[in-house]
Amino acid sequence: MSARRMLAAAALAAVLLAAGCGGSSGSSGGGSVKQGGVFTIGTTNYIDTLNPFNYIEAEAVTAYLEVYPELVQLAPNLTSYEGSYATKWTHSADFKTYTYTLHSGAKWSDGKPLTSADVAWTANTIVKYQNDATAVLASSVAHVTTVDAPNPTTVVFHYDAPVDPNLVLSNISSLYILPEHIWGSHAGNQGKDLKAFRPENSLPLVSGGPFQITKYEKKGTTVFKPNPGWWGPKPHVEAVGLVYYTNSDSMIADLKSGQISAVDQVPYTAVNALKQSGGLAVTPYKYGEFTNITWNSNPRKPQNRELLDPRVKKAMSMCVDRQQIISVIYDGQATLANQSVIGPFGINWQSPDDQKLQFNCDQANAMLDQLGYKKGANGIRVAPATTGKYAQPAHPMQYQIMVPNSLDFNGSREFSIVADGWSKLGIKVTQQAGGDSAQAYAIETDDNCDAAKSTGYAKFDIALWDWFSYTDPDFQLSVATKGQWCSWSDTGYDNPSYDQMYKQSGTLAGAQRLTLVQKMDKLLSDQWIYTFLVNEKAISAAQPNWAGYHPELNGYNYGYMTEPYQK
Q: CB within 8 A of 377, min separation 6: which ones?
């Protein structure tokens, strides 16, 4: 632990040397605040890449919102949208053309003009390769056919069908605008070079948001300094340091000693002690993370195909003690999740008929008995032999559960609770180390992932992970489409009927869209491609000499880093 703290102190010293310190008096938001200083945020999450076509970690979105412009973003209330690079927008009477007016005189951090041409190039590039290299951002331009830039401050999006304005804003808020003069040379090889590009290797990052990144360490300290070309409200600080910790105890120790200014999420087992210690602002906030068991749902998976049966997955899910997970892992700072892929931020979209998960091991055992999975002499159930294209001999029901080591909760302890429950069913599981999120995801998709050829998702059975939800359900629903194979899909689910419903949902509004969304939600719930466990509560902490820190904006609004200031 002490070595980790020494490394943290050295990293913070580098931040201070790079950014300077001190401050002056200024005005923001109608009031006078002290300007300057370095605001340092401790986190147990990390930025896996600065390439928005190839990321997994939620902390990467934190970075993108600060360095890449968006036309619109979620407002601080996290329920409506506000302009960012776009000052206003209109749509045609048939809802197929959307026009955005942009800030004039904007610049990238290298001094080059930032104009509508960059927006059009980014969007058209995503549209062109949306079924492959740019699939990660495909939902941001769903139904877009082409984007025009008639003048430097106007950009026009054309859609192939009427699209509800609320859905357009939700999707477009995830369109990270990239500098064509940097990224354009990487658009070859059918777009595949876009995915391979590593902008973090050429710093400072060319930025169009409120900050530019001058130092990047995947698992260390990343430094954000104000972008001189930024058109919006200026950050109050001279720099923000995002400090990654592998050990949450070290992070809290550094917070208490004043080596960092704040932490984005207090470890659940440390909340009460931190509150009692006094002197820090400990604040609960609205949070959209929910945890899950991920089931390989690829209909072509070659082995352990009994795990494709929703009845088997439901029975196994019924013997997971989620209340114990809440008590042991979260110290009570979580609630039971609904069996909905939409998540807690989109609860009004969830189907009222979703599967209801009850903890009942006796009933689960009876269900497996009825399905013909009898226990062998050693107490382990046996899956009967099957015939046909994917024939398997009889085999014991024993599986690996992959647990990434980069979770923001104790994944190994959660595995133990799951394994204990399943042992009561006569099912044996062992923990499969996945490495960090990128390594774990590579195991899920495997090294032969190709949506067009329907290859991949053949070498894992079960994983423990989490998701973040949004106010609109479109992104969450898109994850289960075949179009997100090898991109966001972590299950390999492949259902053409579902894909058609998803495509149609983007052209509906009001009650019609709600009805279809709930139908899709119920379908995924009935298929048990995920078992959802808990909704996490979130609690942050900050030094008392800082104000304006709004942790709920993390990953949703650039004010997360622009608003903090010294008292």
A: none
Residues of the chain with CATH 3.40.190.10: 1-61+207-286+539-567
| % of the chain surpassing 90 pLDDT | 87
> What's at 558, amino acid-wise?
Y
pTM for this prediction = 0.90
Amino acid found at 208: G
**Structure confidence at residue 56 as a pLDDT band (50, 70, 90):** very high
Which has the minimum average pLDDT: 15-19, 94-98, 169-173, 187-191?
A: 15-19
Name the residue among 206, 60, 171 with its Cα closest to residue 555: 60
Distances (CA, A) of 430 to 166, 322, 412, 435, 461: 45, 19, 11, 15, 11
The pLDDT of residue 235 is above 70: yes
The answer to whether 470 touches 346, Cβ cutoff 8 Å, is: yes
CATH of the domain spanning 69-200: 3.90.76.10
Q: Is the pLDDT of residue 120 over 50?
A: yes
- In this predicted model, what pLDDT tens digit does every residue of 428-444 receive, in sequence order? 999 998 899 999 999 99
Residue 476 has which token pair? 């969450």
Which of the four pLDDT bands, split at 50, 70 and 90, describes residue 201? very high
CATH superfamily of this structure's domain 1-61+207-286+539-567:
Periplasmic binding protein-like II (3.40.190.10)
Q: Where in the chain is the domain with CATH 3.10.105.10?
A: 289-536
Rounded Cα gap, residues 543 and 274, in angstroms: 12
Backbone angles phi, psi at 369, to 5 degrees: -60, -45
Q: Please, what CATH class does the domain formed by 289-536 belong to?
A: alpha beta
140/470 Cα distance (integer angstroms): 13
Give the list of residues 6+ apart from residue 82 with CB closer than 8 angstroms, or none: 72, 73, 74, 75
Tens of pLDDT, residues 175-198 = 999 999 999 999 989 999 999 999
Which stretches of 112-216 are assigned E, i.e. beta strand? 144-151, 154-159, 211-215
Nearest to 163 by CA among 131, 136, 140, 137: 140
CB atoms within 10 A of CB 302: 11
Helix (H) or strand (E) holding 193: helix 192-196
- β-pairing, 38-43 vs 239-244, is parallel
Q: What secondary structure does DSSP assign to 378-427, as a single string?
A: TS-BEEPP--STT----EE-EEEEEE-TT-SS-HHHHHHHHHHHHHTTT-
pLDDT tens string 123-148:
999 999 999 999 999 999 999 999 99
